[in-house]
Specification:
The protein is 46% helix and 9% strand. By secondary structure, it is an alpha/beta fold. It has a four-stranded parallel sheet. Helix 3 packs across helix 4, helix 4 packs parallel to helix 6 and helix 7 packs across helix 8.
Amino acid sequence: MDAVRGYGAEVIEHGDRATLFDKLNEVREARGLTFVHPFDDPVVLAGAGTAGLEIVEDLPEVDVVVVPVGGGGLLSGVASAVKQLRPAARIVAVELAEGPGLAPALAAGKPVAVARPAETLADGMTPPFVGALPLEIAREAVDEIVSVGEGEIIAAMGLLMTRAKLYVEGSGAAATAALLSGRLPVAPGSRVVALVSGGNVDLERVASVFRAAG
């Protein structure tokens, strides 16, 4: 939040994730603002899709693409691009086990409000619901959904920070966690891409979590 304020933006805090978008719409209407949806907007999804374009450009014969999912914007954008260029590629969505959203929405056939953990390092994977457009795309383009737990995400963060020198948030480490934990088995010799996206995590919090983990 300090960084956002430093860029000149105003931060409005709201303590209830379930009513987050209600609060957002209240502020938007009261002040005549324009809302850019973070994960249910076709232009935002197209922007996320450029990551998929880069994956296929760098690894044309990619077999498996593993993507974390919260609201579904990143997943659906990447899946759309990869499936257009490399239809044989397997797209795997990775959810937070403590608060999955995509699997319940697919089961219901529509966006549904889901329970999310109040405290998690993977807060980017805990919006109130999965977007309608990402859900529609996921139904066609996602081949598999796996879930990872908080401990597995923390372990993946540790490896990415120490071995890959990537300061990554919990959500960004989820795809790597799915592979490291064995939740997503892959055939030997498979060409696999785990998307690492996001570095919004407080340094002191990361340090305390790693200390607690031993």
